[in-house]
């Protein structure tokens, strides 16, 4: 996955009514604007100016080309002059990638002493963009609208967020997700319609038996294992029982073999995400914990117990966050700390939490696992650092996918947790545990989440718009009565808009 594989196209709308001079000026202004955006340092993708479109045929050709070009992750439109919007119908009908409408104008301020009607006719995005906006709304096309002068940092940052989401969207359109075993038996919230997910969200979920991975494990050499264990030794603090010569050193080596096999398997399948199931391990000696932790930090989406929706979302978050401070991880709501307004949730999993969410050196430990009936697995143990973040999930409501987001504040534990043998994060859900957890439960949210320190709500709004899925956000402004109303209104909306 590489941001340099993608670009964003910029198409300016105009018409020939205002004469040749105006066409030349519009083109020059657009080129200067795109140059300014590219020079801003705020955009993760290059913007490619694709010229001014003046007719239905030109617009249709531009959008068809954008749709076919693998490098094009989305199109930005802007109406410099008035562009009669019936001209945009055929183009929009032929386009299904992300769309951003940049509502800006070339000049920043009105030139009070010089402004005349020629200036007015050349610089009329204020009404040209309204005409364009109407047809997009009339066609019920989802898009992002960004308003402000193109040189404004805030405008550039909002375009930058959308670009990151465009890359994650493109990444998901050819995502293969490998599922070792099935969903954990009887579990409802982690399951769903995989066919609908492929139609709606793009990614493809394949099944493999864990025996297929065990076969690959047989091809792992001692030399590869030596090298990987040496890498562990350079990165992590080893617990005494894990060191060379100690009782559980062999378990660390077995964990390394599983990691090598898993990475090789995923690479051979071209997969970007995977799930495991502690109930279906067969020829693996231990639950893959360390391997899942490290592969997640490399960008593989992960979901436990067959949770393919969360695995795909973890991958998508990781792609969106590339190059931004903060990390991404799979997490699970585990146990509560009730303490008034400081009430918090301890997040963990059996083993699989990404070391991307800590700024401390993880400890490599081996302990028995109470369930699954296998040998003692290796894992990285750490506590996530304090800071704001968000946890999100996608659930299948039967007639639609619903994304639920809760903004959270990760806090330091009140005291060390010397007996907790897994990685963890302690957080207070916004606006507090009482409302945050109640809203999450009313929305039907999972116990598994994709967590990020790097993303804010705008990323998820952009994603939900592009995907055309429901989004409900729980944050500091949430009230239960308001949230219930939102869920009920959404129910009606999605019954009417199938
Ligand atoms: Mn779980």
What does this structure look like?
There is one protein chain. With 498 residues, the chain is an alpha/beta fold. It has two domains: 3-172, Rossmann fold (3-Layer(aba) Sandwich), CATH 3.40.50; 176-496, no CATH class. Helices cover 38% and strands 22% of the residues. It is built from 15 helices and 19 strands. The protein has helices spanning 20-39, 56-68, 89-93, 117-122, 125-138, 153-173, 194-201, 210-217, 222-235, 249-269, 290-298, 308-320, 433-442, 457-467, 480-496, and strands at 7-13, 46-53, 72-79, 99-103, 144-147, 176-180, 204-208, 237-238, 273-275, 301-303, 328-337, 344-348, 363-366, 378-381, 387-396, 401-411, 425-429, 448-452, 470-474. Strands 11-12-17-16-15-18 form a six-stranded antiparallel barrel. The protein binds manganese (II) ion (MN).
**Content-based structural category:** alpha/beta
The distinct bound ligands, ions and cofactors come out as: manganese (II) ion
Radius of gyration based on Cα positions: 25 Å
**Could you tell me the number of beta strands?**
19
Please give the oligomerization state of what you see. Answer: single chain
End-to-end separation in angstroms reads 33 Å
Please state the average pLDDT score.
96
Query: How many structural domains does the protein architecture include?
Result: 2
Strand order of the largest sheet: 11-12-17-16-15-18
The largest β sheet comes out as: 6 strands, antiparallel, barrel
Unreliable stretches: none
Inertia-based shape: elongated
Strand content: 15-25%
Question: Total number of helical segments?
Answer: 15
Helix content: 25-40%
């Amino acid at each position: 996955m590489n941001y340099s594989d993608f670009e964003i196209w910029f198409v300016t709308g105009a018409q020939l009514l205002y004469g040749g001079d105006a066409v030349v000026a519009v083109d020059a202004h657009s080129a200067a604007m795109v140059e300014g955006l590219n020079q801003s340092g705020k955009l993760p993708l290059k913007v490619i100016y694709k010229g001014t479109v003046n007719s239905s045929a030109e617009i249709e050709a531009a959008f068809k080309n954008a749709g076919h070009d693998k490098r094009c992750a989305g199109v930005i439109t802007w109406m410099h002059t008035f562009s009669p919007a019936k001209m945009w119908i055929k183009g929009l009908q032929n386009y299904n990638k992300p769309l951003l409408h940049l509502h800006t104008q070339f000049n920043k301020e009105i030139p009070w002493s010089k402004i005349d009607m020629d200036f007015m006719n050349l610089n009329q995005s204020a009404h040209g963009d309204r005409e364009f906006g109407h047809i997009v709304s009339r066609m019920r096309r989802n898009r992002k609208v960004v308003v402000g002068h193109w040189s404004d940092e805030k405008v550039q940052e909002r375009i930058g967020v959308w670009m990151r989401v465009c890359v994650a969207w493109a990444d998901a359109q050819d995502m293969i997700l490998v599922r070792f075993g099935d969903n954990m038996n009887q579990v409802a919230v982690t399951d769903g319609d995989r066919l609908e997910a492929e139609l709606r969200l793009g990614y493809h979920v394949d099944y493999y038996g864990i025996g297929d991975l065990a076969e690959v494990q047989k091809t792992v050499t001692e030399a590869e294992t030596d090298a990987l264990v040496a890498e562990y030794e350079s990165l992590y603090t080893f617990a005494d029982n894990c060191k060379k010569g100690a009782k559980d050193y062999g378990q660390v080596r077995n964990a390394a073999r599983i990691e090598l096999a898993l990475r090789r398997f995923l690479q051979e399948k071209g997969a970007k995400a995977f799930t495991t199931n502690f109930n279906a391990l067969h020829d693996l000696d231990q639950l893959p914990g360390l391997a899942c932790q490290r592969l997640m930090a490399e960008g593989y989406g992960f979901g436990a117990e067959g949770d393919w929706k969360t695995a795909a979302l973890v991958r998508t978050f990781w792609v969106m966050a590339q190059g931004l401070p903060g990390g991404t991880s799979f997490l699970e709501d585990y146990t509560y700390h009730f303490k008034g307004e400081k009430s918090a949730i301890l997040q963990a999993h059996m083993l699989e939490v990404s070391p991307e969410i800590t700024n401390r050196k993880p400890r490599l430990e081996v302990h028995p696992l109470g369930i699954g009936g296998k040998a003692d697995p290796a894992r990285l143990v750490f506590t996530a650092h304090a800071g704001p973040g968000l946890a999100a999930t996608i659930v299948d409501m039967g007639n639609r996918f619903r994304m639920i987001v809760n903004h959270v504040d990760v806090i330091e534990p009140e005291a060390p947790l010397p007996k907790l043998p897994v990685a963890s994060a302690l957080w207070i859900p916004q606006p507090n545990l009482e409302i945050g957890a109640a809203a999450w439960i009313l929305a039907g949210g999972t116990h598994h989440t994709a967590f990020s320190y790097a993303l804010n709500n705008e990323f998820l709004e952009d994603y939900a718009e592009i995907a055309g899925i429901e989004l409900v956000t729980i944050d500091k402004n949430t009230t239960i009565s308001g949230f219930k109303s939102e869920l009920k209104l959404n129910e009606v909306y999605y019954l009417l808009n199938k």
